[in-house]
Inverse folding.
């Protein structure tokens, strides 16, 4: 009897069983592995469904953006949601920037290439103390933009080390089509007292018909003017490219955003708008904008902030601060979202995405994912322990 019982005894220690007689207990862990696969599949599906139901991709001025829809938006209408206010807030920021650029580019509501730009005033437009060095020059807007577009050329020239007066590259034949430097326009005398230095080729003259050399009294001032000129021209060139994009983006046929910004008084009064407004009465304009649906009305002079959105005055001021130099206290700002959504834009994409989502319960989803992961890891440990045991198939 003892010998018979010994033959049916299972040996659990691997090193006691000859390798050719070992048989793993795989039949006892197969069902566990199946459950593991099911658990991890459920966890992945729950994650994917949560992401699909909580995130919306829309295309706005800055390109494609992905927004997370807050769980607090469940049961709300689109225009009352946190999601709407996030999208509308970005549009408001773009409007403020667009109007700022329009004020740089336009006169009387249209692009003005002959608008005179003080390069020093432009470069210090955001500074509260202005320029520390008052040297400047006035150029036509169109010339600055084209100069930046074409690039800056320099040429070595013999000039007086003592004074800048009378030492300049006179490009009387300069034009938009001119490529390179006209050699006849460069005076390279070898008289004593001259030094060789790089000089900026004057592709365009100032609004007064002067070259940069004629606009400076010293070489130090000349170098400052060159730096200010290139900084101003490059900035305006970038803004001009944005201006063209914004013109299309906020065209009323392409956008559900309506805006009207009034700046200045009297002869300095300027109106920037994409809404069909025939009146200049600010109260009537406010009433018109309220009919669109969601709106923001801001009057910095009277410290009036009126809105039916969740965008607070503090939040608006944070958006406004970087552009307020272009507005002034005597400004009126009206921005609204036409909630009839006639145009295909970011707001309409957001509305479609919002209505298509189902906002799964976050706590329930995370609990399911956590339980699946815990179950998977538990079975992994058990399977590992079980698969470490062998039986002797000859016993």
């Amino acid at each position: 009897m003892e010998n018979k019982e010994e033959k049916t005894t299972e040996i659990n220690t691997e090193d006691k069983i000859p390798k050719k007689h070992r048989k793993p207990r795989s039949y006892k862990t197969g069902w566990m592995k199946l459950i593991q696969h099911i658990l991890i599949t459920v966890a992945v599906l729950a994650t994917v469904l949560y992401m699909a139901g909580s995130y919306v991709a829309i295309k706005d001025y800055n390109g494609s953006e992905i927004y997370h829809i807050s769980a607090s938006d469940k049961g709300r209408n689109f225009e009352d949601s946190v999601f709407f206010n996030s999208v509308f807030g970005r549009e408001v920021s773009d409007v403020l920037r667009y109007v700022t650029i329009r004020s740089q580019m336009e006169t009387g509501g249209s692009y003005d290439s002959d608008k005179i730009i003080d390069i020093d005033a432009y470069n210090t437009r955001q500074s509260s103390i202005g320029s520390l060095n008052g040297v400047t020059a006035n150029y036509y807007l169109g010339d600055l933009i084209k100069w930046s577009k074409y690039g800056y050329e320099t040429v070595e020239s013999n000039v007086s080390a003592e004074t800048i007066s009378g030492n300049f590259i006179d490009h009387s034949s300069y034009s938009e089509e001119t490529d390179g430097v006209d050699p006849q326009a460069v005076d390279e005398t070898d008289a004593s007292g001259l030094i060789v230095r790089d000089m900026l080729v004057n592709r365009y003259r100032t609004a007064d018909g002067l070259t940069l050399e004629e606009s400076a009294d010293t070489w130090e001032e000349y170098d400052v003017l060159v730096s200010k000129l290139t900084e101003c021209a490059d900035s305006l060139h970038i803004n001009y490219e944005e201006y063209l994009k914004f013109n299309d983006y906020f065209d009323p046929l392409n956008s559900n955003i309506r805006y009207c910004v009034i700046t200045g008084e009297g002869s300095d009064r300027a109106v920037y708008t994409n809404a069909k407004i025939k009146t200049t009465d600010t109260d009537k304009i406010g009433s018109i904008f309220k009919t669109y649906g969601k709106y923001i009305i801001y009057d910095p002079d009277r410290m009036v902030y009126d809105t039916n959105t969740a965008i607070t005055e503090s939040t608006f001021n944070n958006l406004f601060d970087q552009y307020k130099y272009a507005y002034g206290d005597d400004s009126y700002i009206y921005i609204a979202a036409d909630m009839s959504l006639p145009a295909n834009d970011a707001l309409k994409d957001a509305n479609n995405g919002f209505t298509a989502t189902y906002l799964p319960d976050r706590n329930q989803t995370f609990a399911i994912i956590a339980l699946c992961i815990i179950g998977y890891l538990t079975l992994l440990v058990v399977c590992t322990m079980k698969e470490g045991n062998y039986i002797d198939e000859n016993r």
Observations:
- Residues 2-52+363-392 form one domain.
